[in-house]
């Protein structure tokens, strides 16, 4: 069950950009942005972990296909601070998603579902979405 905001029917096609602005809670342990078709078909599970599941200050990404998790991918950069506002941008093409983070950090994650249109976004954990831009 999602505890944060849920967006559906977004209709974001390849090449368009999703901008997410929000506030990371003071004392944050972990937050999640899920993007995809729906809750069971997630092309990007983006999970910055300040201190969760044995990970410290590590971004863990994964996908979910028909309810089944894929293989995790961990990123080296962690440009997040508890108790601050942050803006992130996600674009996608048939092969990859590109995630742009603060301090000019950027990384790619494979589009394992081959998703053409991103309709679904939800946020969970120690993050409050303030605005979403579809551009
Ligand atoms: C070494 C054997 C155990 O492996 C561990 O297994 C855990 C359980 O499967 C892995 O943690 C899970 O990793 C998934 C991604 O691969 C997801 O991140 C799972 O969380 C799903 C989730 C919870 N929530 C609610 C939430 C989120 C953030 C804060 C508060 C509530 N939203 N999505 C999260 O529970 C965790 O990443 C994994 N660690 C490793 C190193 O593989």
TrEMBL record:
<dbReference type="Pfam" id="PF00337">
    <property type="entry name" value="Gal-bind_lectin"/>
</dbReference>
<dbReference type="GO" id="GO:0043236">
    <property type="term" value="F:laminin binding"/>
</dbReference>
<protein>
    <recommendedName>
        <fullName>Galectin</fullName>
    </recommendedName>
</protein>
<dbReference type="InterPro" id="IPR013320">
    <property type="entry name" value="ConA-like_dom_sf"/>
</dbReference>
<dbReference type="InterPro" id="IPR044156">
    <property type="entry name" value="Galectin-like"/>
</dbReference>
<dbReference type="GO" id="GO:0030395">
    <property type="term" value="F:lactose binding"/>
</dbReference>
<feature type="domain" description="Galectin">
    <location>
        <begin position="4"/>
        <end position="135"/>
    </location>
</feature>
<keyword id="KW-0430">Lectin</keyword>
<dbReference type="InterPro" id="IPR001079">
    <property type="entry name" value="Galectin_CRD"/>
</dbReference>
<dbReference type="GO" id="GO:0005615">
    <property type="term" value="C:extracellular space"/>
</dbReference>
